Every structure is written in structure tokens, then in C-alpha cells.
Amino acid sequence: MRWYKTRIAAVVWTVLRVWLGLQWIEAGYHKLTGGFDAGGFLKFALANAKGDHPAVQGWYADFLQQFAIPNVHIFNVLIPWGELLVGLGLIVGLATIPALIAGAFMNLNFMLAGTTSTNPILYTAAMILLFVGAGAYIYGLDRYAVPFIKGYFKKGVKINQQQ
Fold first, then answer.
1. Do residues 104 and 124 lie in contact, with contact meaning Cβ atoms separated by under 8 Å?
2. Could you tell me where the beta strands, DSSP code E, fall in the chain?
3. I want to staple 24 with a disulfide (CB 3.0 to 4.6 A). Which of 6, 74, 87, 163 is the partner?
4. pLDDT in tens, 31-64
């Protein structure tokens, strides 16, 4: 067994996972209760795509202008609920890998939009936890859910092979 998948290391990964989950819960909660509107953020990001050394790359500015801004109502729902669900999944350790991927994807998009803030730290924490894989949820609900789901699908494959 690799050192980063041991039970001792799992305590460290659990603390990091729960901390990361709390960051996402806090961000999502504030957006849900504070009347979040991504429109201003998206327009600010688009404005940062100009000049000699733009903070936002041209291709990403095109995405913002052609898709994100015209569909801001979708992002006004997806971002706060996504943050809240990522945080919840990380805290309880359920759907940990998908939650880490979704969180890292959001952080990456926030950084591509020219916002630094805590995004590099949160992104790095997610990457570390993705690297340790199953070690990230030894102390979480995925410890039980993942083997159950794998067993369910293995049984389904055997049934289909017999027919």
C-alpha cells in the first residue's frame, strides 16, 4: 500500500477534505442567501481581456461573451448550488472524486476569468486530494458507497453475460 493511502495519512487527507468542503459550503451559502448575480463578475472578467497583458485570455473572453454572459441566469443557479453540493460531498466524503473534479473545474474557471483570491489554494488542495484517490475518503461515506456501487455493477455484468 502506498504511504498516502494509509490510515494515518487518511487522517490528514480527511482534515484537508473537510476544510476544503467548508470553504465551498461557505462560498455557496453566501451566494444563495446574498442574492448572487454572476453578471457583474462576468462583465468584469470580459473587461480584463483587453490591453497588452490581459488577465483573461482571448479564447476565454470569447466563451464569456458568446455563452456565459447571454446565459448568466444558468450560471446564477449552477455556481451557488454547485459550490454548496461540492462542499457537502467533501465534508461527508460522498461522491468525493466527482466533487473534487467539480470544485477544481470551478476554481480553474474562476482563475481563467482573472480572479486569483483563494482559488489557487483551493485548486491545489483539490489536486492533492485527487492524487491520493481513495485515500481521500477512507474516513467518509464513499468508503462504503464505492464498494457497494462496484458490487452492484459487477453483478449486473454477470447477469448480462449469462443470457
1. no
2. none
3. 87
4. 999 999 999 999 999 999 998 899 999 999 999 9
Phi and psi at residue 69, to the nearest 5°:
-65, -45
The cell 485570455 sits on which residue? Answer: 57
The CA-to-CA distance between both ends of the chain, in Å, stands at: 38
Instruction: Note the pLDDT tens digit of each residue in 99-147.
Output: 999 999 999 999 999 999 999 999 999 999 999 998 999 999 999 999 8
Count of beta carbons in the 10 Å neighbourhood of residue 81: 13
Q: Is the pLDDT of residue 159 over 60?
A: no
**What is the amino acid identity at position 1?**
M
Q: Is pLDDT of 93 > 60?
A: yes
Q: What is the DSSP string of 116-145?
A: -TTHHHHHHHHHHHHHHGGGGGTTSTHHHH
Q: Rounded to an integer, what distance in angstroms lies between the CA atom of residue 120 and that of residue 126? A: 10
Task: Look at phi and psi of residue 114 and say left if phi exceeds 0, alpha if psi is from -120 to 50, else beta.
Answer: left
Taking the C-alpha atoms of residue 52 and residue 122, their distance in angstroms, rounded to an integer, is: 29
Q: How many whole angstroms separate alpha carbon 1 and alpha carbon 11?
A: 16
Q: Residue 62 CB: number of other CB atoms within 10 A?
A: 12
